[in-house]
Specification:
By secondary structure, this protein is mainly α. Helix content is 66%, strand content 0%.
């Protein structure tokens, strides 16, 4: 039964991954994620239920549209599979709990936002704003958290990044951070609390700096080329959540 439930958890993640792939495909094009129904971008045929079964449809039809044989983007399979893994791994460690459900909700919204920010340099409101709402709601159900601490965390996280962006633009004359990053930090603060903000900012800044230096060394980007900050914030958030769940102290951060 436990193996069956593990498969179930993984596949629920893959199902959300399918919706994430839809957001990644449509949101940057400024298309509705509700209508029209999913369709092949090559032949425009509306996809049936059998075309939309996460993972299996891609494998069964060998990554091609069954009408026109156009290639289905491999990233669709990758997003579905990876989100299934991101649901399964916390379950294997901690089992079913409210914290597990909350990190799955975070994953469902964070994964498409991660990819969109990495590619297009902005964080979609369709991910960050519901994320803030769900994080605040979660605080009222999880005994180790409180609504007051979640609101304080959201205000502190968003406020710190907003002030940083404001001062950077004031003294440099250019935008250093987008408002999407501010909303993301408000989401993270609401989810993890104000105490997590120094850790998240430190780790994400270090990761961003390391990646920036690597890109400069290999001359793939210049010093002034912007790098999306959102993906590093997401990674740091996951790191903090895992440390807390494993009982490690983060008080030094």
């Amino acid at each position: 039964m436990d193996l069956i439930f593990c498969i179930f958890v993984f596949y629920i993640g893959a199902f959300f991954g399918s919706f994430s792939a839809l957001i990644v495909d449509r949101w940057p094009r400024e298309e509705s994620i509700i209508r029209p129904r999913s369709f092949c971008r090559s032949c425009k045929r509306t996809l049936s239920f059998f075309d939309l079964i996460p993972l299996f449809s891609f494998l069964f039809f060998r990554g091609k549209c069954r009408t026109c044989s156009a290639n289905i983007p491999k990233e669709t399979f990758f997003i579905e599979f990876s989100q299934g893994v991101l649901f399964l791994v916390p379950y294997l460690f901690f089992g079913m709990s409210l914290s597990f459900i909350e990190i799955c909700i975070f994953t469902a919204l964070a994964w498409p936002a991660f990819i969109i920010d990495f590619r297009h340099m902005y964080l979609p409101d369709i991910c960050t704003i519901p994320g803030i709402i769900f994080a605040l709601l979660g605080a009222s159900f999880i005994s180790s958290r409180s609504v007051e601490s979640a609101i304080l965390g959201a205000a502190f996280g968003g406020g710190v990044l907003w002030l940083t962006a404001f001062l950077y633009k004031k003294y440099k004359g250019i935008d250093g951070l987008g408002f999407g990053d501010v909303k993301l930090m408000a989401w993270i603060g609401a989810l993890l609390g104000a105490a997590a903000i120094p850790f998240v900012l430190l780790v994400s800044s270090l990761l961003g700096s390391i990646v920036g230096v690597i890109l400069i060394i290999f001359k793939s980007r210049g010093r002034q080329t912007p790098i999306p900050f959102g993906p590093f914030l997401f990674v740091a958030t996951y790191a903090y959540w895992w440390l807390i769940q494993l009982g490690w102290s983060t008080s030094l951060f």
